[in-house]
Amino acid sequence: MRVILAGGGTGGHVIPALAIAQELKNQFSAEVLFIGTARGIESRLVPAAGFPLELVKVGALKNVSLVTRLKTAFDLPRAVLDARRMLADFKPNVVIGVGGYASGPAMLAAAISRIPTLAFEPNVVPGFANRVVARFVSAAAVHFQETAKYFRNARVTGVPVRSAFFEIPQRTMNQPPTVLIFGGSQGAHAINQVVISAASALRSKIQGLRVIHQTGERDYNDAMSAYAQTSKSFEAFRFIDDMPGFFSHADLIVCRSGASTVAEVAAAGKPAIFIPFPRAADDHQKRNAEALKRSDAAVMLEESKLSPESLTQVITALLADPARLQMMGEAARKMSHPQAAQEIAEMALAVSKR
User: Fold this and answer.
1) Is the domain of 99 the same as that of 195?
2) Do 117 and 197 share a structural domain?
3) Cα separation values, 150 from 142, 147, 201, Å
4) Do 113 and 184 lie in a common domain?
5) 134 and 258 share a domain?
């Protein structure tokens, strides 16, 4: 079985794609090729995972300037032709589009070449690339039931996440209340500023509070300086490599609502305050947060309403209500999909035989 995974750009596209690729390799001894762009995170993560990567030249069409859109429109036909050549050379049995810059050209090339296709869509509302190819795909694997209406032959599989997130034990009630805060690859600065400003109020309102804060590089020194004056129970980290390990210490998580983050929160069964990144394409982070909010699995605090006072109020109210935290965590766990990678790999096999 020969499979091409196309797309990328951000970790939300690439990390699930790598999990799917590994499952295809382990379960079906598949030969896997990635198609991406030089500007996306796949240019670093895919080779590091041991998979070959071919590059096409294509940029963004959404939420960019007119000049960038015109340049992308000019590059698009060449990207489709390049992707079609890659398909002819590799001869895949199926092409899986995971969204992002390279997904559209590769999936269009597959449709032109009459190669079976599978779209993977982790967000409630499909991204631009998947919306363009939705009418052509053989089948689609989606995270949310409400996303199925955009595709033919859609199946709810969830988003692949590391098994360690599913193995996190429940917190006991006799431990200090702990909040894990991180902003992800986009827009961490706005969250960081508010958290740093709220540190003193949080410490005074919540006895014994421990805060674990991944800041990224930009705000690390400011956070360290603020927390040194506040309490040793407030810890700042530039980056956290063992995120499942830190999830296990948390009673509550404050984070963005990208698809992979939402899937990890659900897998861990953790209550969360989602702060959607307001400039995400098609406002998909807000839609993701709303999906968990409707199931009483999370609270959504929009960035336009984010302030030291509002964040302090929401965190204080939630930590004061252990029963609600437990209910939210249980509701989140019900939205998880432990077999996502396996199910998507099996769909790819089925599609390839059509």
Assistant:
1) no
2) no
3) 10, 6, 45
4) no
5) no
Q: In what order do the strands lie in the sheet with 298-300?
A: 234-237, 210-214, 178-182, 252-255, 272-274, 298-300
In terms of domains, do 62 and 171 share one? no
| 195-224: burial string, b at 16+ Cβ within 10 Å, e else | bbebbbbbbeebeebbbbbbbbeebbeebb
Q: Chunked in runs of 10, what are the mean pLDDT values of the chain (354 residues)?
A: 93 89 96 94 93 84 52 71 96 94 92 96 86 91 93 93 91 87 78 94 93 93 87 88 93 94 96 93 89 96 97 98 96 95 96 89
CA distance 115 to 110: 5
Dist. CA 271–CA 158, nearest whole Å: 18
Phi, psi of 218 (to 5 degrees): -60, -45
Sign (positive or negative) of CA dihedral 143, 145, 149, 152: positive
What is the model's pTM? 0.83
238: CATH: 3.40.50.2000
Please say whether the beta carbons of 98 and 8 come within 8 A.
yes
Range of the domain at 150: 2-159+338-352
Q: Using the structure block, give the residue that is written with the tokens 């965590």.
A: 329
Per the structure, how many domains does the chain have?
A: 2
